[in-house]
Design a protein that fits this description.
CATH class: Mainly Beta
CATH topology: Jelly Rolls
Number of domains: 1
Helix content: under 10%
Distance between the termini: 15 Å
Strand order of the largest sheet: 5-12-7-10
CATH architecture: Sandwich
Radius of gyration: 16 Å
Mean pLDDT: 93
């Protein structure tokens, strides 16, 4: 079974609208996570794995500011400071402009919410087990 992801970007200025849709990216597996993170939560563990080298598409977003850490809460491999409602998106199609901020396989995810409001976190990833 295959799965497909694509990214749509829209830009509006002075009544003009530009819309760009990336080509569909195909993979053999998806990782989909929806989690809530309590206000003032520190290093909330999400049990998840992701093969970095097989990743074709990666998307994370939260409706509150969050710190996203991979593999360890005390010495994380990767750290992404998510701003509320500003997604981090990486795909193989957008690779010429963006560096993939996940530098190693993910064995665990830790989320920290320094604010006082419950956060809704989403992760979507597409991988190809036979790259």
């Amino acid at each position: 079974m295959s799965f497909k992801h694509s990214v749509t970007t829209e830009y509006f200025a002075r009544g003009a609208k530009e819309r760009v849709v990336s080509p569909e990216i195909e993979g053999t597996a998806e990782l989909n996570i929806n989690e809530t993170v309590a206000g003032s939560a520190t290093d909330q563990l999400i049990v998840a794995t992701l093969d970095q080298s097989a990743t074709k598409s990666f998307f994370i977003v939260s409706d509150q500011d969050l710190t996203f850490e991979t593999n360890s809460s005390s010495g994380p491999t990767d750290v992404i400071a998510l701003q509320a409602n500003v997604p981090y998106i990486w795909t193989t199609e957008l690779n010429s402009y963006n560096t993939f901020l996940i530098t190693a396989d993910i064995t665990a995810i830790y989320l920290t919410n320094a604010g006082g409001t419950l956060a809704n976190f989403k992760l979507r990833a597409l991988t190809d087990a036979t790259p």
